[in-house]
Amino acid sequence: MFLKSIDLFGFKSFAEKSHIQFTDGISALIGPNGCGKSNVVDAVKWVLGEQATKSLRAERMEDIIFNGTDTRKPLNVAEVTLTLENDGVLPLDFPEITIRRRLFRSGESEYFVNGAPVKLRDVRELFYDTGIGKTAYSIMEQGKIDQILSTRPEDRRALFEEAAGITRYKMRGREADRKLERTEANMHEVDSVLTEVRRSYDTLKRQAEKTTSYRALREEQFNLEVDLQVARLLQYREQEEQFQERSGTARQERDNLKQAIDGLNEKLESELSRVNSMESRLVEVQKRLYGLELEKSSRTERIALIRNQQAQLEDQIEAERGRLKGLSRKAEEQEQAAATAERSEEETRLQISEVDKTVATVQDRIARSQERQKEAREQIRQAEQTITANERSVTECQKELRAVTDELVGALDTKLKESGYSSAERARHEETLKAALDQMEITLRGRREALQDHLRLGGVEERRAAAEQAFSALEEALGALSEAVERYQGAIPRFLDDFLAPEGTMTRKRSLDDNVEKLQEANRGLREKIRDLNEEIQALQQTIDTERENLEQMKLNRVQLENRAGALLEAARRHRREMEETRRHQKELETRIEGDQRRARELEGQTVALQKEHDDLARQEQELRQELKRLEQDIAGNNKSLQAEEEKLRRSMQALAQAQSKLEGLQVKLAEKRTEVRGLYDSFSERHGRDLREFEGRQPSFEGDQKQLRDEMTRVRGELKELGSVNLMAVEEFAEVSDRYEFLSGQLADLRTARDDLVRVTAEIRRESQQLFVETYNRVRKNFHTIFRRLFGGGRAELRLIDPDNVLDSGIDILVQPPGKKLESITLLSGGERSLTAVALLFATFMVRPAPFTLLDEIDAALDEHNVGRFVNMLHEFSEQSQFIVITHNKKTVAGANTLLGVTMQESGVSQIVALRIDGQDGKQGQKGKPGQDETDDRAQAGDQNDQEPQLALDDTKE
Ligand SMILES: Nc1ncnc2c1ncn2[C@@H]1O[C@H](COP(=O)(O)OP(=O)(O)OP(=O)(O)O)[C@@H](O)[C@H]1O
Questions:
Q1: Pocket, ligand 1, Cβ cutoff 6 A
Q2: Where are the compositionally biased (Basic and acidic residues) regions (predicted)?
Q3: ipTM of the complex as predicted
Q4: Taking the complete model, does pTM exceed 0.90, yes or no?
């Protein structure tokens, strides 16, 4: 058998339908990291029934479905199909077998073998002991190597069991164990039920025997009772017939008496009817008399009643007249009250109109104040406008003033320069002028004092001379002063006068200054006016507020007055209504008085009529009393003859009563007998559920009279009592339990046989498994050592059963000794050594039972060039017996393959298969021979190290 092809769709990175065609020999699956090579191995494991997601490198099973890329959407189904060529390895009669597994994202999973749906278990069983399968060695990955070498020795057994072909046995063994367990549990269950049933069986058996005796006695008792009851029945029937005969005779006697009585009764009835009619008339007359008396007394009573009513009516009329007076007084009072209320209402209305007038005045005052406020505000507005205009003019004047000042300063400067004015010179001239003035003052004071002295002391001449001297000194001083003034004037520039001229700059400046001053003064006045106006507005507002408050108060008063007027009007109306009501009552009362008076007159009329009727009735009474007397005499005469006839009838009636009671006595006895007969039937059917009539004609079971029958019954009853309590259903229950007992006993026996068979089968399976295991183990052990030495170029490898006495459960230890090293546990080996050891164990197993195809996923990864050569050579040797699909990155391994299959990811995330070289189909097939050369070298080297390299065959134990 070999793996022909794998078809993948939607499995992991195989988003497209991919077909991988394999050939016999060695196929290398190559491609860059992550392109999906190991996914192919996962796909094979998955089809073969792998359920452990970890082993498939997934978290959940649905992770194996293509989950999309940047450009592709995820798929919802994954499907992988293996096509195998079957040369009899698989237990199916087909040359080609396809195994398919499909998984939907919903979790639904399907398996098909050659297109037919099967269960997972079927797929697994198909590959038992073929070396293929999830636990087998046909799929060897790095992880598996670790598993073989590192995990617990017990876990390694699977490899050997698969090689020994005992997986199927083991499964059967487990199945048999499970069955055995189930059978024993069933046996236990059946046995406990049987024990229980057995207990009931014994009890019920005893009870059933007792019940049988009981039933026989009960039947005897029943027959005796039937005999007794039938005897009684016959006795009752006889008595019944006798009573019937006697009843007939008594009935005849009674009927004769009845006839005689009927004749007497007829006669009596006719006489009685005559007396009765007289008595009826008598009663009638009596009734009439009684009626007349009643009518008479009724008339008397009615007359008295009417008289009474008349008196009451008169009292009532009197009282009503009094009430009428009271009502008219009340009406007058109400009218007065209404008039008073109407007057008050009118006064209040007048007050309201006064208030309205005041309100109008106040409102007018408020309006005027508001008008004044408005005017004041308008004046303020105008003043403010004027202020603004003035301020604008002031600004303009100031602007002009600045210009004039600038002009003035400029002109002054120019003129000063032009005039050559010097302040120092002017100061000097001022000093000179001042000195001349001082000199003149001194001269003036000196001359005046001298003149005064001459005037006081001197003569005229002296006075004249002094005056002349004084004047000439003054003229001299004046000359000097005029000179100084002239010089000073010469020093002062003349242009200032031009400035001060009416059209001069200074005059303009002054006029502007005046203007500004006037405008500012006007604004000050206006602002004052505004302040005054605002104060006036405020004062007006206060007045308005006060007026408004007054107004509100007045309005409030008005509302109160309105309310009062309304209340008064309402009161007046109420008084008027009440007055009308009183008047109406007055009228009603008057009408009632009139009615009462009318009624009093009517009552008087009635009294007269009733008195007349009373007198008529007294006359009729007199006539009837006479008739009554006559009738009483006639009735007394007739009653005497009736009494004689009645005596005769009484005697006949006595005789009839005796005859009747005799007949009734007989009929009671007859009915009693009949009841007794019915009682017999009923009590019999009640007690036995059967009809006594069934037994009436039958032969008695016992010959004897009723006493003997009763004695016999007593005997049977005594025997029944002796039996004690009886389970009435015991016989039927016993039959049931007995059936069950036999059935369960049979079942227990069957289960015992089945258990013995299963024990035997299990023992056989264990024996066979053990034998096969030991054989295989020994062969693998031997092969392991040989291949280890070949791969390592020497050394030693050993397998050891941890529990040799229990080979079927024992773990297997691996001990290796690479050349030149100590014998050590595999945990101490290097990565490469570990790989080589695993490969050695794999091939050692292969030699015993080669797997039809094997997938090796990068198990050469840790090997150096030299060891890869050895590994490839070994592959070649085994490729005769098995098909190898090798995933590798190693060139040497690639070169050793017959077929090269490329896995690429041209589209990112989507794996694609490319057939690169198929052995025999392209020119590179010769490369297959290359690794052989290495092998020669290796062998040469190995030969150097080891005395002799064993020639490898399929199984060296066969050599
Ligand atoms: N459900 C899935 N859908 C799409 N792609 C998946 C899915 N599961 C795994 N892959 C992709 O498969 C690739 C891994 O493939 P695989 O392990 O087979 O690579 P490889 O060729 O064996 O790489 P290496 O040589 O490194 O061992 C990853 O890129 C991963 O994203």
A1: 12-13, 31, 33-39, 63-67, 909
A2: 577-596
A3: 0.97
A4: no
